[in-house]
Design goal:
Keywords: Hydrolase, Metal-binding. This is TatD family hydrolase. It comes from Sphingomonas qomolangmaensis. Belongs to the metallo-dependent hydrolases superfamily. TatD-type hydrolase family. It contains nine helices and eight strands. It is of the alpha/beta class. The protein has one domain: TIM Barrel (Alpha-Beta Barrel), CATH 3.20.20. Helix 3 packs across helix 4 and helix 8 packs across helix 9. The model has no long low-confidence stretch (mean pLDDT 97).
């Protein structure tokens, strides 16, 4: 079985034909999908999809791009919204300094709110970090000092040092279809050495379709292509990698065992 640890089934292009998208994923052996929210207006739809589909789970969160638009969302609001049996994580949250869509201080405030909600609920966080490695590590290290906190660095495209720091903090690392791109040599080198017991795979659908689907809308079925590429890169049987990453998914997002 494969697990897509990060997709956006309620985004345009996928929501329009959601039953067919899910059917194609299941036909390729995808047995679990985590439907990620990025703003408050999505929470209801993302949870509703998880209620309707037994192999789809949900997160509650605010993307760093949208931090400025959510000054009212604090730890209490996140904790209350996450109080649902189909919600298994908080996020995606984090820091994005690449585009500057939201004030950096506002991003840090709501990132910390997700961490506090994670401690209150026992749920893991799904972390987005772009061009913000040092601050991401600093906040995570500080928040870990306040109590237990776990999660995953999603769609990892960072440096080798960032990977090592994330692992040292106890986080999982999720690899997307970007690893299949010819230009992703540094990422491929990092992905080849990541410990199997801390590795996840994702599509970030409808974005980042892997080879051989580049140029198309991404969808959860394509996690099978990323898994095949990763397995060859790492010199592991694809069955071994698929089983291990699916087990990692269920370990991290523990409520998916229910």
């Amino acid at each position: 079985m494969l697990a897509d640890s990060h997709c956006h089934l309620n985004y345009k292009g996928l929501v329009d034909e959601q039953p067919a998208v899910l059917a194609r994923a299941r036909a390729r052996g995808v047995g679990a999908m985590l439907n990620i929210s990025t703003r408050e207006s999505e929470w209801g739809d993302v949870v509703a999809t998880a209620e309707r589909e037994p192999d789809v789970w949900a997160t509650i969160g605010v993307h760093p791009h949208d931090a400025d638009a959510h000054p009212h969302v604090d730890a209490d609001a996140l904790t209350a919204a996450a109080d649902h049996p189909r919600v298994v994580g908080l996020g995606e949250c984090g820091l994005d300094y690449h585009y500057g869509h939201s004030d950096r201080a506002a991003q840090a405030i709501i990132f910390r709110a997700h961490c506090a909600a994670a401690r209150a609920t026992g749920l893991p966080i799904v972390v987005h970090s772009r061009d913000a490695e040092d601050d991401t590590v600093s906040i995570l290290r500080d928040e870990l000092g306040k109590g237990a906190l776990g999660g995953v660095i999603h769609c990892f495209t960072g440096t080798s040092g960032f990977a090592d720091q994330a692992l040292a903090l106890g986080f999982y690392i999720s690899i997307s279809g970007i690893v299949t791109f010819k230009s992703a040599r540094e990422l491929q080198a990092i992905a080849a050495r990541l410990p199997l017991h801390r590795l996840l795979i994702e599509t970030d659908a409808p974005f980042l379709a892997p080879v051989p689907h580049r140029g198309r809308l991404g969808e959860p079925a394509f996690v099978a292509d990323t898994a095949a590429f990763l397995a060859e890169l790492r010199g592991e049987p694809v069955e071994v990698l698929a089983k291990a990453t699916a087990e990692n998914f269920h370990t991290l997002f523990g409520k998916t065992h229910a």
